[in-house]
Amino acid sequence: MDVPAEAFGLTWPAPLPPYQQQGIARLLAEPGVLLADEMGLGKTIQAIAALRLLLVDGAGGAALVVVPASLVLQWRRHLREWAPELVLATCVGPREERRRRWRAPAQVFLVGYDTLRADAALPAPFGPLRRTWRVVVADEAQRIKNAGTDLAATVKALRRERAWALTGTPLENCPDDAVSILDFVAPGLSPRGALLSGIRRGLAQVQLRRRRAAVLPELPAKTAFTLAPDLTPAQRAAYDVAERDGLVWLRALGARVRIVHVLELILRLKQICNVCPETGASAKAEDLRRRLASVAAGGEKALVFTQFVAAPFGAEWLAETLAPLRPVLLTGRMSPAARDRAIAAFAADPQRAVLVASLRAGGVGLNLTAASVVFHFDRWWNPAAETQAEDRAHRIGQTRPVQVFAYLTPESIEQRIATILAGKRILFDDLIDGVATAGLRRLDLPTLLTAVGA
Question: Which domain holds residue 384?
Answer without folding.
Answer: 222-451
